[in-house]
Each structure stands twice: as structure tokens, then as C-alpha cells.
Amino acid sequence: MQHNHLINGQWVAGTGYNPNINPSNLSDIVGEYALADAALLNQAVEAARQAFPAWSTSNIQARADALDKIGSEILARREELGTLLSREEGKTKPEGIGEVVRAGNIFKFFAGECLRLSGDSVPSVRPNIGVEVTREPLGVIGLITPWNFPIAIPAWKIAPALAYGNCVVIKPADIVPGCSWAIADIINRSGIPAGVFNLVMGSGRVIGEALTNHPDVAAISFTGSVGVGRRLAETCAKNMKKVQLEMGGKNPQIILDDADLKTAVELSVQSAFFSTGQRCTASSRLIVTEGIYPAFIQAMKERMATLRIDDALAAGVDIGPVASQAQFEQDLSYVEIGKSEGATLLAGGERLTRATEGFYMSPALFVDSTPEMRINREEIFGPVASVIRAKNYEEALALANDTPFGLSAGIATTSLKYASHFKRHSQAGMVMVNLPTAGVDYHVPFGGRKGSSYGSREQGKYAAEFFTTVKTAYTFAG
Questions:
Q1: Active site residue 179
Q2: Active-site residue, from 73, 99, 113, 246
Q3: Predicted structure pTM score
Q4: What DSSP line would sit under 26-55, residue for residue?
């Protein structure tokens, strides 16, 4: 079945179509999704530009009702959409359904935000003058989303953009267009006017660059690789556009001697390997202090042996396939890099054969690794983790912060002293105590520091900082 672009409320044919391939079963085609060129992108931006004056000043109850309707339909179709997500991206069906639920809740949260947007009324330092400080929408927002969370990340960008009165042109990752298309279909039937929301699918080099350079696009929100994010930031700065970037991490998980071993192992396995390790918040550096090191290594090896890797839609599966051929090859190459650097491969790191041809890989765990190794410096974005030995908490903290990234960080400990110190001194945007580094709530800010993020935070009420601009109005009372 062919799936077209959504431009100005109409389904528009592409310049060509790409097959959406199931990474659990390479012979299964999820659907054929349209490709766009710069001309189609320009049509979408023009439609959004034309729709902005009316939408930006529209009734806030109507906006809230539309977003709530979108969220309700997503939640009602959680099983269907979760299956679609798992089929096109490769995370297990329970994870896929969980992500769909998150997306639905995000739209419902921002339905409420339509009614909660507030400002300030303050006295002037001059007599007989009143001052009002309000937030207003920016205009046309370009959204560029990644493949690893194909419904949650589009949702947490689309929902606030619309809630605050902006118009949207979204370009999803080209290997997972299905979930974004499903959202577009739901939005198109929600009562939101034509042109307010537009979906354009295709290559990042073609559509992403055209969107970023378009003079009528006021801002860009991007989630993806560091290299692309840096180039995008340079373009936006040159063109005086507002920009928001989420670009990954090399997240540490500290395990202290006083940690509960079972808890430490379980949160480490979940952080490093669930969702096939394809999360920017995954912990790929396990920093373990000397006293618990031998027991932790043995317990990790035993727990990893129980993991079931298979078709994402099969019952009882812990980890699905890698999302694409390119990512699969990258993951396997880093296993070889780790070996060549002198780390010991304790478990996994192998290509697996299953009933259907897919990108199956056993999670890899390195031990005897050192901080300067590439496997500990570069984001792999797959089920590959390494263990670094630390003498004590102080060295573990220093190792955790020794990274160009700063998205998420975790600590496993029963000490309130160390937990409190780590929360304050970790150089990450999100800190977890006795919890996996991956897994965040939808109503609080998401984002990092250093090379992980640039610009204001996503999610929750903090999303207003990016999707609105502040206006100060003075009134002379006479």
C-alpha cells in the first residue's frame, strides 16, 4: 500500500516511493511511503505559512479539544499502533505499545497546556504605565525526527508546537515513516485546519536541508546525530532561526560497592540493552567500583544468558533486532574495535540466526576496558556496553563526567550521601538513582548538557521556552 505526504490537508503523491522494511523479517514490507523533493517541501511550508495567522490566534479551547481528540485516538489504538511501531522499528511489542501510550499522553498533556499558558502583569517603574509579558507562537516550525522512537519523539515535538499556536512541517526518519504517517492521519481527522500540520517524507539530505534553509521556517527542532546537528546549528545561526537540538549521549551508570546487586544488574541490563540499545539515554559505560566488580561481572553474564533475542512481535521476547542494515554493521564494527583496543568481550556481540531473516545481534558486554578506548568515547547506538573499573566513588564520578556528552547518568547505591552528591555533581541533564538511565516521564523536561543538547528543553511546561517567544507590552493609563 502506498502512503502519501500530507500537505495543506490533502494527501499528495510523492516523486517516488520507498519500501518500509521490517527489521525482524526482511521479506515483510510494512508499506511504501512517498518521497518528496524540494518543490513539495516548499508547498508544505507555504501551506503552513498561510495557515499560521488564523491558527495562532484561534480559540484555545478548540486547540485543546483537537489535541485531546488526537491523544484519545492514539490511546484507543495502542495495540494496532504498537504493532506497527515494532514492525517497522524492531523494538519489542510491549515496548512499542508503551511508546504509543506515551505519545497519546503527551498529546493529552499539551491539550491541557493550551489552557494553562500564562504571562505576567507587572507595574512599570514609571507612573501610570502597565506592563504585560506574554508568550506568542513563532510561526512555521520544522521538525526533524529520528528512527529510534518513531511515535514518541514526533509526538513530543508536534503537540507543543500546535498547542502554542505554531504551524508544523515534519520530516520523519526515512527508515520509519509509518508511525509519523499514522499520526498525520489522526491529526488530519481531528478538526485542526488544513495547512496547520504537514507531513513530508524523504531523504534528510534533500528534505532536511531544504526545510532548514527555507526563509519562511522560523525554527527547527531536531533529534539525531551529533554531526548532522552541528551542521544544522550552523545553518540556523546563519539564517537567524531558533534551533533546538538533541544529539545523543555516552551515558554512565555507576555501580558502587554498597549497591543492591540484583537491582544494579537489572537496571544495567535494561539501560544498556533493552530497545536493542538504540536509545540516546542508554548507558553504554558501566562504571563499577572494585569491591562489587567481580560479583557484578558474574551476575551480568548470568543475566545476559537469559535474554531472548527474536522477532519483535513474538511473545516473551526481551530484545528485538537492530533497526537497519547500516546500524547493524556499525554495531558489529564496534565489537571488533573493542577487541582490537584490548578490551575483553565477556559475552555476546555475535550475528544471530532466527526463523526469519533479520538484523539480529546478541548484546555485547566488554570488561577490562579503559576510559580512552573508542568504545567508551563514541556513541555506538546499539546493544554494546563496556565495564570500567573504579577505585571508589570519587574516581567513578570523575570517569562518569569524562565525556563530551551529558544527557543521562545513573548511580546504583544504598547511600543517601553518595546519591545526593551524584545528583548535584553529575554533568548530565537527567540523573537517575537506582533506576535505568533510559526511561523518562512525559510531563517533565528532557534534555542534556555539553554535546548532547543545544537550546531549550523538550517536554513538559518547559517546551514553551522553545515553541514560543516572549512579548512585553506597555500601556499608558493617562
A1: no
A2: 246
A3: 0.97
A4: EEEEEEEEEE--HHHHHHHHHHHHHHHHHH
